[in-house]
Here is the input.
Amino acid sequence: MRTMWKAECYLRLPCNHNDRISLNDGLTKSVSAAFTVLNTFVGGPRRRHVPGCHGGAVRDPCQLPWRLRGVLRSFCVVATLTGCAVGPDFLSPDPPGVASYLPKGRGADAGDLASGQRVVSGADIPGRWWELLRSRHLNQLIEQGIIYNADLAAAEAAVRVAQANALAQRGALFPTVAANFNPTRQQIAGGTVTSPLASNETLFNLYTAQVTVSYVPDVFGGTRRLIEAFDAQVEAQAFHRESVYLTLTANIALAAIQEASLRGQIAATRRLIEIQLQLLDLLRRQREQGQIALPDVVLQETAVAQARLLLVPLQKALGQQRSLVAVLTGHFPSEESAASFTLASFRLPRRVPLSLPADLVRQRPDIRAAEANLHAANAQIGVTIANRLPQLTITGNAGSSATSIAQLFAPGNNF
Here is the structure.
């Protein structure tokens, strides 16, 4: 008579309302199916009717020995159990349910766009977005920043570290093999203890070579949840690198545009000083001819001095901006760049992309990094639950001991 097995896995937690929580609805079905197959193929003795034989039935010659059946049964049960993982599965949060940035009835004013520009709904922003400004010097400057910036290089190194840690964690899914060789020299007190050697020598060498294999099956999925957490950390570091990349390129572009703005302000201030000086020269001539009084000339001299005061902070800000550009591109401020920017160096993009708020959320690397960190924390819940459950360790070792290296692994010396 065949015996049908049914298994149910429950996790006991200190809950007030229910002290049994099912690990996985599919786990019970998987284990039950595994036991059904085991009872079908490696179950109890199977007999078939053979005419002319004593008793009318003989043992099926395809029936496996009982020891092999036990090994296969244990292996299949462990393999089935390792298909489950405790803890909640991570689900990405839903994007915001909005379809526009402004309330209904309010749209973007067409007067906000420059001549030749148009808004393109649903258009994607290119990865090299700064090329839309059509500035050759800006493109070269950002390329230098990507190559030489220390913050971006540190972010790249952090991604490689996270990838190496995730790859190393996958080693826990495989058996651990250790080999050792231990040579010793021993001496036995001949008067009290009999020598184990046939020659009755009390001083001899003993060589022991041994291989140990151990394996911890991931029955409850704690290792796989830990790997999931490490993979999520890799994603978080990758999005952090992308955030550093976008921040760097945006800061270089803004610094170049700010430099162009300061140069324009300095040029306008100098032009204003020239006009004030011309007016001062005209007033002095009129004063010499007696057409105006002295206070009018003094008032104009004050206006020229005030205009000159405006030039000093602008020049100082321009120098600071040039130093910022040098640092962002991985250079020292003393390494002056040959490229300089004016407002005429840039062109406005012809197509202005307009995306939905839900799409913008998926494009922001800081939000994606926060989501990856949430994924890692969610996987740690499964790791913690698995640590509260029993752990199964399978260990095996084999080796040989002999009084000489030549006799290692000879018949009778193995264990």
The beta strands are 10-11, 21-22, 47-49, 57-59, 118-121, 176-187, 203-215, 351-354, 394-402. The first strand starts at residue 10 and ends at 11.
